């Protein structure tokens, strides 16, 4: 079982012990941080396709707003705060994908943003918090603890998973991996909360 299916085991960021143990270099363990790292590494990667991306997110536009001896750092927050909305429309503070260059067009940029809204929200907006679903948000009335509410015993079997270590905890993929007799109450919950019945 891949570690990134355990939402409760998805720490916000790797800890010092993970760096020291070498787990971050182990392809099997890197998944444990995928929920957090995919957001925190947006725009920070050199190569596209791994945990983060090469554009958007926290990738700064160093072609237009660089500082430091080698022009490898973004300008200071005080200078960035002086930039006008018009300047940022022409030269964004964060890196954009080459295919998204139409965002900068003064005539069609707004329509391009509207047409690509969902993708831009998912790929380009930097996250400032940990993964959604990792922690309870008390202001939302529909929080559900999957572990408490949906782990079912059928006969003598608590939860039909081969790994004893994860035998009685809810993993992210259980919605598709577990047989219906074990998770029917989750679907009943969806129907009730969604107002479908």
Please write out the topology.
Blueprint: H1 16-21, H2 27-30, H3 34-40, E1 66-67, E2 73-74, H4 77-80, H5 85-90, H6 109-115, H7 117-123, H8 146-150, H9 174-177, H10 180-194
Antiparallel strand pairs: 1-2
Question: Main attributes?
Answer:
two-stranded antiparallel ribbon, single chain, 197 residues, disordered N terminus, 2% strand, mainly alpha
3D structure, described in words:
This protein is mainly alpha-helical. Among the domains are: 3-40, no CATH class; 146-194, no CATH class. The chain is 33% helix and 2% strand. A two-stranded antiparallel ribbon has the order 1-2. A hairpin with a 5-residue loop joins strand 1 (66-67) and strand 2 (73-74). The model is unreliable at 1-5 (pLDDT under 50).
